[in-house]
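ugh ok fine here u go
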Amino acid sequence: MKRIAAIVGRDIRSGIRDWLIVYLSIAPFIIALILRSLIPGVGDSLLSVVVLDQNPLVSSLEQVARVELVSDLESLEQRVLRMDDVFGIVYTRGAYELVVQGNESEHSLGMLETLMARLTNPSSSVPVDIQFSDLGWEMSPLKLYGGIMLMLFTTVFGGMFIVLNLVDEKMHKTLRALNVSPLSRVELVIGKGMLGFLLPLVGCLGAAWIMGFSGIHLGMFFVTLLSIATISIIIGFSIGVMNDEPISAVASMKMVMLPVLLSVFGAMYLADNWHWVLFWSPFYWAYLSMNGILLQQADWFLVLRNSGFILGLTVLVFMGLRKKIVNGLE
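structure:
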């Protein structure tokens, strides 16, 4: 254990020196913060209006639109003149007037005009038939799929750390020194793969917390993360031993993005009877587990089955690349 800890400590110092481990550690958190700020909720209103704070329709408007309050007419006009589609509503001479910039969406303007006609004259008939239905969604689909994509790519970040670490060892001719040390081959693999295994775990847990996936089953989530983290180890060692300089290593890592994207978009858009074309990808099974867990619809059978497929496919890939990995570590 001391020798494994020494390798991990050496990798940490090397990563901090090159800012590698710092970037790969905080990248999932930064991306999660960006997604949280950009992705709207599924119930967000299409209309945004700005009104004076003494407007009597404020309480009614807040039920159907996003409302901003200002204290004077100049502030209202300045808000309307910004780049986004925000309409101003002013009460003057016993009537309501809409303040627009002129480049707003005609569809949104028509909705607001119909809404104001209804609010100012409740007895009038509105030329639309409004019905409500429950589609079963309690979160934004963009939030769900963005979260899944982030967690799968965080796996790639862990593999990238292993790749660049091995390339750095080769460039500085220190890998051979490790091979002639008392360190066993198993200890070398565990030590070099430890951070690549832990980074996806920490990154995915932090991303889930930042994006507000509360109420998920932590046990199922952790089991799925463990199985996904094994992918990063195989990715890292298989690409790391085949490259001797960073540029080619990064180019090889870019190719890993392709099966991730194919798996996610294939699972999203292919008909169910065509999903068999994705069975080869561990990222497909990871997607199924993450989708069920984040929607709080997964059970242990689903999670354990998919984790078994992920581990099985990972072992098959490792057996196919075992000789190259072993020879590359010498």
